[in-house]
Write a structure and sequence with these properties.
By secondary structure, the chain is mostly helical. It is built from 8 helices and 7 strands, in the order H-E-H-H-E-E-H-H-E-E-H-H-E-E-H. 62% of the residues lie in helices and 8% in strands. The strands form 3 sheets. It has a 3-stranded antiparallel sheet. Strands 1-2 form a two-stranded antiparallel ribbon. Strands 5-6 form a two-stranded antiparallel sheet. The chain starts with a helix and ends in a 10-residue tail after the last helix.
């Protein structure tokens, strides 16, 4: 009976299983994900460039903020817009994405255009409203403290919105203590920068305030980045995440350059228009 069963198996190509010998080597043709943790590093040159953008944007914004309230007490919409675009758009948003370019990781990544655009709009709107609020009565310490908290939280919200727009095939584990530290850094430094900006008449002191604000933005950003541990869940680590309106990481530099240049042109045009309108018109001489 057993012989006939083996014969039928042989005729249909079925090989009876055999016990492995001590010399048998098993080779798996399926690659395994040995280390799901994504290795990251930061390019020092791009990190320094991100700090420069943070300081430049902060300097323009804090100068414009000091002129938001006119001598009559009215708020100047033009300077509110300039301050918001300079700080929220250049000092925070552009700094963030240059900082993201400085981040090198051994996994494919993309950026969601919708979340990226929302983070830009949110940064500009939040900083504009916060600076306008502070400019109404900058001599009141309580108002500056509230404005500092709001401004610091604006930076925090923009950063984590931008981080949400970063897509990898995997997920992010957050160190809650470092996330909390990033919030504290942003709020404290933003409050100090506002106080310096509204209590400093000289350009040098405003530059010092801009440096403090730049430190706030960068310290918050890189502390927040340190809080993130990227976990890859695909065996092909170089796979680029695909989705609706996803931008591959290698296309991000062009996007940042275009947006930053556009914002710079808008600010330059507005400042030029403001300087032209401020010039007194010379009276025409009569020929009689």
């Amino acid at each position: 009976m057993r012989t006939s069963l083996l014969a039928r198996r042989a005729r249909i190509g079925v090989v009876a299983p055999t016990a492995p010998s001590s010399s048998t080597i098993f080779i798996s043709t399926r690659p395994s994900l040995m280390n799901p943790n994504v290795t990251t590093s930061v390019d020092p040159a791009l990190a320094a460039l991100s700090f420069a953008f943070a300081v430049i944007g902060s300097f323009i914004a804090l100068n414009a903020a000091s002129r938001i309230r006119s001598a009559s007490g009215r708020l100047q919409t033009g300077n509110i817009v300039v301050a918001g675009i300079a700080l929220g758009g250049i000092g925070v948003w552009t700094m963030h994405f240059i900082g993201m370019l400085a981040l090198d990781m051994d996994a494919g990544r993309s950026y969601a255009a919708i979340e990226t655009a929302v983070s830009l709009i949110a940064a500009i709107a939040a900083t504009s409203l916060t600076l306008a609020y502070a400019a109404k009565a900058p001599e009141k310490l309580g108002r500056l403290v509230i404005a500092g908290v709001l401004l610091g939280m604006s930076v925090v919200v923009m950063h984590y919105l931008g981080m949400y727009g970063l897509k990898i095939i995997g997920y992010v584990q957050w160190n809650q203590a470092l996330v909390a530290l990033s919030v504290v850094i942003a709020v404290v430094a933003a409050t100090a920068a506002l106080w310096l900006a509204f209590n400093s008449a000289s350009v040098g002191k405003r530059m010092a305030a801009a440096v403090v604000m730049g430190v706030a933005v960068c310290a918050m950003h890189y502390t927040g980045m340190l809080a993130a541990e990227f976990i890859c869940t695909t065996e092909n680590r170089n796979a680029i995440p695909q989705g609706f309106a996803y931008i591959p990481a290698f296309e991000l530099p062009s996007l940042v350059i275009v947006v930053a240049t556009t914002m710079g042109l808008i600010l330059s045009f507005q400042q030029w228009m403001q300087s032209v309108s401020a010039k007194p018109i010379a009276p025409k001489l009569s020929r009689n």
